[in-house]
């Protein structure tokens, strides 16, 4: 049986989220590795039980859209047969582990992160004491290399470093690689124990505060890192350690070992997923709303472009973030995807200059929970526009129709 339907930001299979277009069912794929046979089956299930649309999440998960409530139990059993359903909703919700999609394909990696990420995923699922972690509490296991996760934020992160005594994980808390608070080092095989002890420390310390924080960064602001370090096991090395250097990341297009394919605003359909699955033995999900196709042949390039895939890192659509908007989301009053496509076409000069645009259907900012150079916030069928701002910020331009908003963004200078 499935659990209660969840309205919020962290749906699952056992706790789906109700949206305007039906239930949103997020499938957590261990390590982000999806065998092609499973991908083809998921495409079939998405057509049969949902509306045929799929989202790629920023946590390297697949989301089936438009699932009909009466179809949920049958869908769940089909996904369970693929090994993609947890024992219960609590163990499902806590399995927020992100790792390198390029692991095993990238010779520049410091450590092969996948086994350690899978061991951590299993520990989170089985350790009931950790099921009390808040929703969205996330962990990263980053082996380094060209497919690194330096700009992805996490509550607990393990970043591989090569030291004179061997390759270890640098343990840090509450941010991306540059901003997270360094805690120490751990041996690769000790990673699950280290993560569990730090998570337990978070739960213990947050319970002592009058307003228990839900994220590690907020806890550190209240207590500092030392109380966490004192409770953490399997750690060695200094409290502070410099963040490791990471190379420039470029994963799209033809690379040694894989073909990287992005999709505008992280949205594809079941036909596209099925088509991708025919081109490689497995699909690798990424936090960049893209798929990697290991070993895809030369003919795959034209095939993925025909399926709506984007191979060029500089495609203007990739500089625009957009949530589902209307008609998919109950909070949205604008067709964010259509408006984002129009902006990508009309504001090419602005986007080519490196500016980022966020088209948000409401002030929640689900697609990009950070500042963008240009932020459009949907309101009553139109948009407010703010510069270098979060969604909902006081607008520079207010009450614009979608067409006026597109023209306004296109007219902005990259020097604003």
Please tag this protein with its features.
Sulfite Reductase Hemoprotein, domain 1, alpha+beta, 3 domains, five-stranded antiparallel β-sheet, 416 residues, Sulfite Reductase Hemoprotein, domain 2
- Helix count? 12
Give the helix proportion (percent range).
25-40%
CATH architecture of the largest domain: Alpha-Beta Complex
Radius of gyration: 21 Å
Q: Mind telling me the CATH superfamily name of the largest domain?
A: Sulfite Reductase Hemoprotein,Domain 2
Tell me, rounded to a whole number, the average pLDDT: 94
Let me know the largest β-sheet: 5 strands, antiparallel
End-to-end CA span: 54 Å
Number of DSSP E strands? 20
Classification by helices and strands: alpha+beta
CATH fold-level label of the largest domain: Sulfite Reductase Hemoprotein, domain 2
Give a description of the structure.
- The protein is of the alpha+beta class.
- It folds into three domains: 17-92 and 251-306, Alpha-Beta Complex (Sulfite Reductase Hemoprotein, domain 2), CATH 3.90.480; 102-231, Sulfite Reductase Hemoprotein, domain 1; 316-411, Sulfite Reductase Hemoprotein, domain 1 (2-Layer Sandwich), CATH 3.30.413.
- Helices cover 27% and strands 25% of the residues.
- The chain has twelve helices and 20 strands.
- A hairpin with a 2-residue loop joins β8 (154-163) and β9.
- α4 crosses α5 (191-206) and α10 packs parallel to α12.
